Amino acid sequence: MTKAFAARGAEVVVVDRNPPPADDERVSTIIGDLNDPEVRLSVITEGTAGVIHCAAITSVLQSAGMPAETYQANVANTAELLELCRKHSVPRFLLASTNAVVGDVGEKTITADMPLAPLTPYGATKAAGEMLLSGYAGAYGITASALRLTNVYGPGMKHKDSFVPRLMRAALSGDTVRIHGDGRQRRDLVYLDDVVAGVLRVWDSGFTGRAILGSGRSISVLEMVETARRVTGRLLPSEHIPAPRGEMPAVVVDLSASERELGYHPTVSFAEGLAAVWQDFLHDELHADRRDSPELDSVIARS
Questions:
Q1: Which of 47, 139, 198, 228 could staple 213 via S-S, CB 3.0–4.6 A?
Q2: Which helix (H) or strand (E) holds 210?
Q3: d(CA 57, CA 62)
Q4: Domain assignment present for 277
Q5: Phi, psi (5° rounding) for residue 246?
């Protein structure tokens, strides 16, 4: 995301708890937590063209175990950022949201106009964020977009706790993959590059309201595991465990409105995207081995 905007010549400022993996002179990074008022004040100033707010607690399981922290990260911080945008006349705000705001709709296809009915703290906080966004748009004229993302995956997600990085870690270590329930529950997984392309289209068009950004194809957890076995060439043994509360049987999204209004057309298949993620994990593993090995360090120093 940051690279895409920087490549256009935009002055990009990122807030992150951790330093970026590589320096980019076109991107300024503020190392800090959005819970800190000073961090928020340092990033939103007069002349800011817009905010793309992706910071959140995104794990459904984590949110169930820490609802107060999830509220602070996903609702309170969003409210504080919107208020700073109002005070500094920032004209545009894009919020990374989720289709979990509509709750469990069974096998129905999810559209952007479905009523809000979240079943988890994560879904509820994202629904609250959307309502705040709508309120600030209506009262103060902020160009506001709620982007309901499906399961986003791609390089750079080694630290995440979602299913794709868990598959990759298991492939590296030989550990067993835990599958909730029978594994037939379906999810829409969208590759990072497709999401970035969608965000750019939202930004360029001045789109307001809700938009679903996904791949448009839902696959079962069992299919994900089989694809990971083919891509990695690893055995990936698996075991089935009880599904937690709030586990949706399917996430099937309708992209027709996003295609029509934004010209959004995802292009990366799950197998292609997963292969890129696997290479990213292998690369990190190789460099970790080099850092841990005195012999390899000395070779690097001589080269």
A1: 198
A2: strand 209-213
A3: 8
A4: yes
A5: 85, 0
CB-CB contact of 219 with 186 (8 Å): yes
User: Would residue 208 count as lying in a domain?
Assistant: no
Domain extent, residue 287, equals 152-189+216-253+270-303
Interstrand relation of 209-213 and 186-191 (parallel, antiparallel or unpaired): unpaired
Would you tell me how many other CB atoms lie within 10 Å of the CB of residue 258?
26
Inside any domain, residue 143: no
Q: For the sheet with 186-191, list strands across it.
A: 151-153, 186-191, 218-220
- Report the helix count and the strand count for the chain, using DSSP H and E: 12, 13
Residues 34-58 have pLDDT tens digits of: 999 999 999 999 999 999 999 999 8
Between 226 and 3, the higher pLDDT residue: 226
Confirm whether 181 is domain-assigned: yes
Q: What is the pLDDT of residues 65-108, one digit of tens each?
A: 999 999 999 999 999 999 999 999 999 999 999 999 999 999 99
Domain count, the chain: 1
CB-CB contact of 94 with 209 (8 Å): no
* Nearest to 53, CA basis, from 154, 160, 133, 124: 133
Closest C-alpha to 221, from 246, 194, 243, 192: 243
Q: 18-32, 152-166, 178-192, 266-280: which has the minimum mean pLDDT?
A: 18-32
Taking 60 as the threshold, does the pLDDT of residue 299 lie above it?
no
Residues 6+ apart with CB under 8 A from 105: 114, 248
The whole-number pLDDT of residue 294 equals 34
Asked if 214 and 266 touch (Cβ cutoff 8 Å), the reply is yes
Distance between CA atoms of residues 302 and 72, nearest Å = 49
Domain of 288: which CATH number? 3.90.25.10
